[in-house]
Amino acid sequence: MIVSKTLINWYSNNKRELPWRQTKDPYCIWLSEIILQQTQIKQGLPYYESFLREFPTVFHLANADESQVLKLWQGLGYYSRARNLHATAKYIVEKLNGEFPSSYKELLQLKGVGDYTASAIASICFNEPAAVVDGNVYRVLSRYFGIDTPINSTQGKKEFKLLAQQLIDIENPADFNQAIMEFGAVQCKPQNPNCSICPLQDSCVALQKSSINQLPVKTKPNKVSKKHFNFLVLISKDNKTILEKREGKGIWQNLYQFPLIETKTAVTEKNISKQLSTHELLKEVDFEVSLYNDNTIIHKLSHQHLHTKFWIIHVDNLNGDAIPIDNIHSYPVPILIGNFIDAFNF
């Protein structure tokens, strides 16, 4: 099909030089795809390079401690990706002798690997004509064909996947998939694309109908919830503090944080002092409390906004779970906590 040939030709002349484009090693492709989920290339590239230095093969990654993986991931967010990455590495080493599955269907069975990632690995590493559909592909296809089906609807996902599969170059699926994604990222950009130099301008429906800015269509997300987090930064005279490991399910599972008091509304120093007097860590203990950040820190997640205050609490002694403050940087923490640690500079 002429569209696929045009995109591949454009790609050969305009593609960015990126390290994962220099290899067909499924470990490297898998690693790059997991890191770049919900992450821009400029942010993900340093993490990709760090992971390859620290874990050059799937065997190195499988043999690492989860805390080591989470620490290296710190700052990327969506930490379930890192936990799934580690779990899948273990599975590949222990159950598959370190060999990645070589087909789209088999790749889909791996934890943390969905349609997009399976398609990318299958096409790039094993030349299987499995079409990728990501945000860039949705944008290119919706504009070029003038499709207004919401891309985050069940119908939209099926429609665009089928269309991409029909367009894919059977003989060169790897370059086609990378070409259409790159085209969306560099040429058919979300805002102000330069349509005057677009090789598809003569047949682009959205350009002809002046609907570039209206496509793709996406339904509005559910209302974001609001939470109030109060982190207790305990500091003893012998320079120790307390970090707690988050257990159970959640985006910060197995990461560390300062003891937390969650409240329904914002609290004052008087309010927090009253709660601290009965807190299990501070019962019958003299303490001094002060608010670190006068302005509430709002940490925005996809499904909730965390209105956060850090309370500095000085005490004489802490219990046996306390850690030396000098060791605080060795613990994997959410970026919200990491930013505070860096700013406070203990």
From TrEMBL:
Presence of the UniProt keyword Iron in the record: yes
GO biological process, alphabetically ordered: base-excision repair; mismatch repair
Listed EC numbers: 3.2.2.31
InterPro entries: A/G_AdeGlyc_MutY (IPR005760), DNA_glycosylase (IPR011257), Endonuclease3_FeS-loop_motif (IPR003651), HhH-GPD_domain (IPR003265), HhH_base_excis_C (IPR023170), HhH_motif (IPR000445), MIG/MutY (IPR044298), MutY_C (IPR029119)
Keywords: 4Fe-4S, DNA damage, DNA repair, Glycosidase, Hydrolase, Iron, Iron-sulfur, Metal-binding
Cofactor(s) the protein requires to work: [4Fe-4S] cluster
Listed name of the protein: Adenine DNA glycosylase
Protein's organism: Yeosuana aromativorans
Lineage summary: Bacteria, Pseudomonadati, Bacteroidota, Flavobacteriia, Flavobacteriales
